[in-house]
Structure formats: structure tokens, C-alpha cells
Amino acid sequence: MQKQRIVVIGNGMVGHRFLEEIIAHAGNDHYDITVFCEEPRVAYDRVHLSSYFSHHTAEELSLVKPGFYEASNIKLLLGEAASIVNPAEKIVSSKNGRMVPYDKLVFATGSFPFVPPIKGYEGTDIFVYRTIEDLEAIEKCARNSKSGIVIGGGLLGLEAAGALKALGVDTHVLERAPMLMAEQLDQDGGAMLSRKIENLGVHVHAGKNTLEITEGDNARKKLVFDDGEVLEVDFIVFSTGIRPRDRLARLSGIDIGERGGILVDDLCQTSHPDIYAVGECALWQKQVFGLVAPGYKMARVVADHIFTEGQSAETSLFAGSDMSAKLKLLGVDVGSIGDAHGRTEGAQSYVYQNQPEEVYKKLVVSADGKTLLGAVLVGDTSDYDNLLQLKLNDIALPENPEALILPNTGNDGAPAIGVDALPATATICSCFDISKEDIAKAVQDGNTDLASIKATTKAGTGCGGCVQLVGQVLNAELLALGVEVKNHLCDHFEYSRQELFHIIRVENIRSFDELIAKHGKGHGCEVCKPTVGSILSSCWNDYVLEDSHTGLQDTNDIFLGNMQKDGTYSVIPRMPGGEVTPEGLAAVAHVAKEYNLYTKVTGAQRIGLFGARKEHLPEIWEHLIAAGFETGQAYAKALRMAKTCVGSTWCRFGVGDSVGLGVELENRYKGFRTPHKMKFGVSGCTRECAEAQGKDIGIIATDKGWNLYVAGNGGMRPRHGDLLASDLDKETLIRTIDRFLMFYIRTADKLQRTSVWMESLEGGVDYVREVIMDDSMNLCETMDRDMASLIESYQCEWKTTLSRSAQLKRFRHFINSDDSDDNVQFVNVRDQHRPATVAERIAITPVEA
Amino acid sequence: MNWNTICHIDDIIPGTGVCAKVNDAHVAIFRPLNNEQLFALSNIDPFAEASVMSRGLLGEKDGEFYVASPLLKQRFNLATGQCLDDDSVTLPCYQIRTLNGQVQIAG
Ligand code: SRM
Ligand SMILES: Cc1cc2nc3c(=O)[nH]c(=O)nc-3n(C[C@H](O)[C@H](O)[C@H](O)COP(=O)(O)OP(=O)(O)OC[C@H]3O[C@@H](n4cnc5c(N)ncnc54)[C@H](O)[C@@H]3O)c2cc1C
Ligand code: SF4
Ligand code: FES
After folding, report:
1. Which residue has the higher pLDDT, A668 or A340?
2. How much helix, strand and coil, in percent to the nearest 5, is found in chain B?
3. Which whole-number Å values give the CA distances from A847 to A13, A179, A842, B56, B79, in the listed order?
4. What is the 3-state secondary structure (H, E, C) of A620-649?
5. Quick one: pLDDT band at residue A809, thresholds 50, 70, 90?
């Protein structure tokens, strides 16, 4: 039997979703599938497009699992646009002259940004915001610009404005309507949003129309408004709406709506039954859906229909989609649900406004006051999930609906409906159409944490707006199943690291023995001992080799050096920021020669000396300390180093003193223990020569201050840092890092790098920002105090060690002899040496008893 | 039996180990708790063949003590030398005692 031939035009979010759906239905070799993909890369996550500015890799945005197309026998024509469709002969051709016959054709051509034909709109320095290429062009331009404007104050326009702000240019937003986000918000909500955004330093111009764009006098562009005013900026981004890409369909004789859009029915079929349209190019009941969730539903409907055709099986229908949205724009929480404008007949509304705190909330309820029709939330969207579920499930409202949005005063505050009240069919994730019962089922199948729920159901992996709710359903379900969520450290402590941290602090516990006597059982193990050792150090910053702490230290800490494969150690002195004087270098060279150490520049901008015998460590450090060095703690779960680039002091591009800052930070945070090791990076400009975005703390100079990235990682699973805040002055920067580190120390699990910790936090970097910058948990004062005491109690632990004669005895190889370890032998290599293999060793120590 | 005196028990910090030279052999001596209970095993990690066992972390499971090699963390029962992560491997054990506070190993 000949396979059915499917051709898909467009490899955007929805086109790709269709491919996943059809393969999920039919497996890999049921169909012959060809995809025309106009863009130079496979489908990527346009919803998170803006994150390209902080991550800069198209791979991270890609929606396609590596090997998926190959494994599924899908032929992808990359960079090749379809140019003619001939429905009579059922052939699609491209500009290259390629002709591909089809049995079923799917249009998934998306939409294009509409740019109003204002005089002068076609010049240079004018952009739209839709593809990775658009963003690359904007970024390049922003580098040589001081100011920019986004024309259009809708959802996307504000997102673009946020991006410009983060790129460090003076940012303006212009909206023709009298307020921002006119689609979603009412007048007062829009006004509140404008105020908040103005307070963030973005200039809002509402109720203005641009008549002309000309060359500027002080900046590159000049905008002339209808009220006669002018504004000069260096570049312009248009975000004035989208239009369906229906030209190809129109040319092919397929029916198009009056105002554009490929007409489709409930099966997403066009006027030609073998041709479908899905996503933003489709027009259903006079609506084009500019969101991804409805597009995904359409993709499923079409895959279902193609698969079930000819069988008696039932197929699904497209029935429209909810257009509610919750967003964080420029750091401002905004939510809009259903009929926000109260256009339904007889609709009544309740409004709560708190000007000092810049919060605005509105409920729209039905004439009989029984059901929720819509809502607007600005400045506080904590009620969003609750309200959306009330609306989507038509749940009867309480007698006084206003309590739903009034602040919680006293015990009987807002009647939270809670996930328990939701019907099993309630949609939790609208991007993937995942209901409460789907999640419950996944939990019953053994997916007991958020990460595996996301992996199995996909819930929460689209726009991400539902993640908190998914977490609540998960927890409720675990509770219902009687599953106890265990995070015990080990057999000896029925507590997690976080809980132990709390106990140690609150009860002022100073040793492992005290802790295990009061709160544990048995004698400890290689899991709890180092963990508790690290917590004790994070809390009190004692010398780690006090007798009571010595047995807690892991391999490297117990002799303050990294153990090598033959039992020798590496010695890595601190070189803050990567700086080292010629005298310092000479001292290092001298020590290396005297103790016959293999010498290498490490991956962290400092010098490592390898192959040091344990009994030589104290003398080696004595020399290094005398030459002004300190321990580099390459052995400790603590700050390793701050990698820097030369920055503005030498580099012709530098806009900030990255070395100076790196040295200061390294000295500030050195010494105290953290859940895992930490690395910092500081770059002097956006060229990022210090690779700061791959570090736990990454700082990049801007012409206004410093951008702070957190939770980056190199190593086993590289992760780009998240932008926590931009354009900070130094004082704010340091305060923010202080708190970030304290929050990490308090809440991370054992051996959890900041990257993994960040990913385990519900709400991610936004949540961290709330805690450490907005003080949402009222913790900042304590964290500031704790950090101050850690910094104050710093000591170079090698210096302390040298001052204690009892310690020095520990470093001998034998307790009863001055001999050295005869197993340690070297073999020459490239003018230095390496450990001998066992076979290469000369005399082997007898091991029999 | 010949008892070799090694050191005073106070020379071993509770919760840690030391390495002793006994007739050219490297012997690891462990003192898990703050008392006179001692264990002695070969100091040679049988996996890496490096003289490091005394520098490992001590642990306890169901009342029995073990040491985790400082290199690749394989665990060995202190009383029997049995490797808990690989049935086929055991570390040689030595007899050990304290006499008037002096640590002694047979051999
Ligand atoms: C010496 C050095 C390699 C070199 O020759 O350059 C090195 C050597 C070791 N690294 Fe590293 N890492 C060295 C730079 C790095 C870097 C580069 C950097 O810091 O910019 C990275 C990637 C950056 C990062 O961490 O994000 C790196 C990622 C790792 C990882 C993976 C961590 C992760 O979260 O993915 C480990 C394993 C671990 O920590 O659990 C590791 C672990 C190790 C250990 C400790 C393995 C071990 O347990 O014995 C090695 C011991 C070294 C020693 O004896 O001193 N090393 N290691 C570098 C010492 C830098 C220093 O001056 O302190
Ligand atoms: C910055 C930004 C933020 C957004 N945020 C959100 C959000 O938070 N929530 C949300 O729900 N939605 C959001 N959206 C909208 C969402 O991205 C779209 O709804 C979604 O991408 C639509 O998918 P699509 O496949 O229909 O169109 P697209 O993703 O645009 O894909 C269409 C593809 O078809 C290609 N194509 C067109 N014509 C041809 C041809 N003739 N031959 C070959 N290929 C062709 C195009 O090049 C394009 O790659 C956002 C959009 C942007 C730009
Ligand atoms: S990459 Fe592996 S082998 Fe190389 S230094 Fe790092 S840990 Fe050691
Ligand atoms: S609603 Fe978008 S990811 Fe769940």
C-alpha cells in the first residue's frame, strides 16, 4: 500500500506540534511527510523568544528533540519556502523548482508583524520582533545606540520594551490607544500598568499617533506625532499587531476571510477538504488566535482527523480557546481573564485599587452575580489561578464575590477554592490541554515530582503560566495517595539539608556530635557528615579542622588540598580575579622547583601545582603565604574564583572595571562553605570574554552599571545564567549578590550547584528576585546580617593550620615514622612528570597481613 | 605474637584515621568514636593501589562501622575488611589493641 503523503508548509510552533501529534498517533512509517521550513532553523520556541537575549543560543530555544525528524522519516526542507500550491494537481512547489505531491496539505504559515505605512517606516534602524534574526539585528543595533522606542503597547510591545531595557538603552513605548494593553486591560488597569512601567524607567507615551519618521538631529531617528510633539531615538521596533500569512493560500484559490486569515471549520479544514490550516494563519469563526495554546489544539484536531479518516473512530473538533493570559512584563505582574472589559450583557463589576502599592484588580460577573465572566489583575496576580479555574469551570461564586480580590484581612479572607474543589476535567495546562485528572494519573503512575510530571505530561512546558497550579495538583494528589514526600538526608537524620540548616541556626548547634545526639540516630556516614560539616561552616565559619570537625571533612578538605590518583595533592593558591604579580609568579616557580611539582595553568585563571606529598603541604604553604598568597580553596565547596577579563582598565571596548570588581568580590566571599562550589565571572562589556554567563554569579558591565546573571554552570550540564537584574550600581549589585548567596546557602540541597537549585525552585529566577530584591519573605535583613558575619570571620585556613603544632603532625604520611610514601613515584613527561602507573612503579609495598 | 607500639591513642582524633608503618606495610588505624575502640586495615586502596585508606571518611550503618575510600568512595567494613560495594574485594585486617593508652598492632 502506498503511504499517504502529507505536506506541511511552515515549521513554526504549531507546524512542529502537528508533526509530533501525527507521529504520536501513527508511529514513524505510516506517512510520507515533507515540511517546508522558510526559516534557516527548525521550529523554536517563539513564546520565549526574548530569552535569546540572555542565552544567545538557538539550540536552547529549539522545540525539536535531536534526531526526531530523522527517526520519524520526516523530510525537512530547511530554508526553503513553498511558493505555489496547485490544489487541482495536489502539488506544492518551492522557488528552487522542487515539486512535492501531497494527499493532505497543512498550512502552518503563522503570521507576520504588521507595520503601519507611516511615512519613513522603511528606513534603516527599524525592526520588528518575531524571529531570531530580528533579535540578532536589534541587539547589534542596540550596541551602537543610546535610545530606542517600541511602537505598540500591547503584550508583545511591552515584551520588546523589556528586551530593549535589558540591552541597556533608554527605552520608550508608544501606544495609540489611551492606555497600554488595550486588548486585555480596562482603562484603570492600563493606567496602573503605565505608572508601574514608568517607575521602572521606561517612558510611556499613550494616546499618541506617529505621523512621520525622519532623520533626527541628536539621535538617528525623529518621530513626529499628531499633537505636533517630536521624539528622537536611535532606533525603532514596530509591534503593532500581526496579520495571518495567507498570501500563498489566497493565490491558490483557497477561501480567505474578509480581513485576512485562511477560513477553517471545526475540523480546521479549509474550503478544500484535503487542505487544512492551523495556528496563527487560520481564521475560525471570525477569529485569529495569536496565542500558542489554541494553535496546539488545532494541530491535534488535524492530526486526529487525518489519522481517523476512513475509520469509524471519533475525531475531535476545534471549539475555540480561552484567551486569558498571565504575564510578567518588565517585571510587572499582569493578568487578564475572559471578558475583561465587561462587554457581556448585564455584566457587573467589582474593583479593588490600592494606589500606594500599585495594585489594581477587577472582577466581571454575570448579571445574576453567580458566575465569573472575566477579571483584570495588575501588580498582583496571586489570585489568577483561582479566578481562571472559577471561570473555566463555571464554578458558582460565593455570595460576596468581592472577597475574591480583597486583600486577606483576618482569617476569613479570600475564599480560595483550592485544587481540591476543581472538577477532574478542569484544564490545568491550556498549552497542552492537560486536565487535572491527566496529572493525577501521571502521579499515580509514579511521577512524584514536578520535573517528571513535566516530562511525562508536558504540562507546564509551554508558556509556563500553569506551573504553580500543576505543583498544587501534584501535592494534593500525593497527599491523597498517602505518599509521604521524603527528603531525608540519610539513615541518620530524618531531615533535609534545609531543615538541618534551620535547626543548627535556631538552636545554635556547634558540632556534629551535638546535632546527632539531639536530632539524629547512630553515628553518621559519608553523606551526613560532610553535609553537616558544610552547614556548620556556613553558619559559624569556624576553622574546619577543629578536632570536632575534622572527621566530617571529605577527601579534599581534610588535608586542605585536592587528592590526586596516587594520594598526592594539588596546591592552588588564590589569585583573585586572575591577577598575579611577577614577584608572585617567581615565588610560585620557586616552590614548584623546590618541591618538584608539576605546574599547570588551571581552567580557572590560576596556577595549579600538582603531585605535592602530604608531608610537604605545610612547608609549601609556608613559602606561599610568606610570598603573600592565601589558600585558593580549590578543594572546598566554597567560592573558587572570580574569572575576569581585563575590562575598561586596558581593553578598548571595556565599559566597566571588571578586574577591580572581580578582585573585590573574590575577597568578599572567599572562605565560607556553600552547598556546592561556586564560581564567579565578571566581564567588562557585552563581548563577555570572562564567560560570566556560565558561572554561578556572572556580571557584565553596561554603560549604566552592571547586569547580574545568576545560576550559570559550565561542567557536566552547561547552563546559561538567568538575568536577575540590570544596570545595578555597585552597592546594589553587592547587596543583591550577598542575598542571593545567603538564600542559596539556606535553601539548596546538599551538593546542589546554583544552576540545579534554581531549576528546582518553583518560579525560578522571578521567585528569587521577589525574595531577595522585593523582600517578599521578609528575610533580607537577616540575610544581610548573616552575610556580614560570614565575611567578618574569614581566615586563611592554611595560615591557621600552620599556627597549630598539633595539626602539623597530621600531615606526616606515617604516624610512627618520618618516612615518606614509597608508593608515590613519577615518570617524566614533556619536561615535567606525572604519577607512575602501578605497572611502572618500582617497589610495591607488601599488603599481606 | 609480637605487638608493635604505634602511638598514643590521643594522637588519633576521634572520627578519623591515621597511617602506620608496621614492618614495611602501610596500615590504616581508625578510631570511629571518642573511646578506645580501634580498627586496623591495610592502608592501600585495592582499586587505585594508592596508600590512602586512612584518609577516608568513617560511616556507620546498622551499628557497623565502615570507611569510604577517599579516592573513589568504595566502602569497606572496618571489622572484616569486606568491601560493601564489590563482594569480590576485601582489605587485609590487622589485630589491634590499646595498652595503657598506647596503640599496638600485632605483626
Ligand atoms: C585543576 C582543574 C583542571 C585544570 O587542570 O585546569 C580542575 C580539576 C578538577 N575538577 Fe574541575 N577543575 C578545574 C576547573 C574546572 C572548570 C573551569 C572553571 O572553573 O572555569 C569547570 C567548569 C566550570 C563550572 O564548574 O561550572 C570544572 C568543572 C568540574 C566539575 C563539574 C561541576 C558541575 O557542576 O558540572 C567537577 C565535578 C564536581 O565538582 O562534582 C569538577 C571536579 C574537579 C576535580 C575536583 C575532580 C576530583 O574530584 O578530583 C579535579 C581536581 C583537581 C585538583 O586536583 O586540584 N570540575 N572544573 C581546574 C581547577 C581550577 C582551579 O583553579 O580551581
Ligand atoms: C516575542 C513573542 C512572544 C510571544 N509570547 C507568547 C505567549 O506568552 N503566549 C502565547 O500563547 N503566545 C505567544 N506568542 C505567540 C506565539 O509565538 C504564536 O502564537 C505561535 O508561534 C504561532 O505558531 P504558528 O506555528 O502558527 O506560527 P509561527 O510560529 O510564526 O510559524 C510559522 C512558520 O511558517 C513559516 N512560513 C510562512 N510561510 C511559509 C512558506 N510559504 N513556506 C515555508 N514556511 C513558511 C514561517 O517562516 C514560520 O517559521 C509570542 C510571540 C512572539 C513573537
Ligand atoms: S575534566 Fe575531569 S579529568 Fe579533567 S580536570 Fe576536570 S575532573 Fe579532572
Ligand atoms: S498553560 Fe502554558 S505551559 Fe501550561
Report:
1. A668
2. 5, 50, 45
3. 65, 83, 15, 18, 17
4. HHHHHHHCCCCECCCCCCEEEEEEECCHHH
5. confident
Provide the whole-model pTM: 0.60
Provide the CATH topology of domain A418-485: Arc Repressor Mutant, subunit A (1.10.10)
Closest residue in A to B53 (Cα–Cα): A567
Please give the single-letter amino acid code of residue A847. Answer: V
Q: From the list A527, A563, A845, which residue is nearest B52 (CB)?
A: A563
Mutation probe of ligand 2 site: the residue of A292, A296, A329 with most atoms within 8 A of C-beta: A292
For residue A418, the model assigns a pLDDT of: 64
* Domain A4-112+244-308 falls under CATH 3.50.50.60: yes
Which ligand ends up closest to the CA of A572? Answer: 1
Tell me which CATH code domain B3-106 carries: 2.102.10.10
CB atoms within 10 A of CB B84: 15
| Helix or strand holding residue A75 (H, E) | strand A74-78
Burial (CB count within 10 angstroms: exposed 0-12, middle 13-18, buried 19+), residue A356:
exposed
φ/ψ region of A410 (left if φ > 0, alpha if ψ in -120 to 50, else beta) reads: left
Q: Indicate which residue's Cα is closest to atom 1 of ligand 4.
A: A429
Task: Give tens-digit pLDDT for A248-279.
Answer: 999 999 999 999 999 999 999 999 999 999 99
Q: In terms of pLDDT, which residue wins out, B60 or A320?
A: B60
Place of cell 545567603: A742
The percent of residues in chain A predicted with pLDDT above 90, rounded, is 59
CB contact under 8 A, A845 and B57: no
- What is the CATH class of A126-240? alpha beta
Enter the C-alpha cell of residue A317.
473538533
The residues, any chain, with a CB within 8 Å of residue A146's CB and separated by 6 or more, are A169, A170, A219, A234
Domain A637-794, CATH homologous superfamily name and number: Sulfite Reductase Hemoprotein, domain 1 (3.30.413.10)
Q: What is the pLDDT of residues A370-396, one digit of tens each?
A: 889 999 898 888 888 888 888 888 888
Closest CA to A538 of A749, A290, A742, A317: A742
Q: 3-state class of A557 per DSSP?
A: helix
To the nearest 10 degrees (0 to 180), the angle between helices A582-594 and A617-626 is: 160
Radius of gyration of chain A (CA): 31
Domain with CATH 3.30.390.30 in chain A: 322-408
Give me ligand 3 centre to Cα A656, in Å: 32
Numbered ranges of CATH 3.30.413.10 in chain A: 637-794
CATH 3.50.50.60: which residues of chain A?
4-112+244-308, 126-240
* Tens of pLDDT, residues A558-611: 999 999 999 999 999 999 999 999 999 999 999 999 999 999 999 999 999 999
CA angle centred on A439, ends A485 and A763, rounded to 5°: 65
pLDDT surpassing 50 at residue A725 = yes
Q: What is the CATH number of domain A322-408?
A: 3.30.390.30
Task: Tell me if residue A333 falls in helix, strand or coil.
Answer: strand
Question: Which residue has a Cα nearest atom 16 of ligand 1?
Answer: A603
The two beta strands, A170-175 and A147-151, are parallel
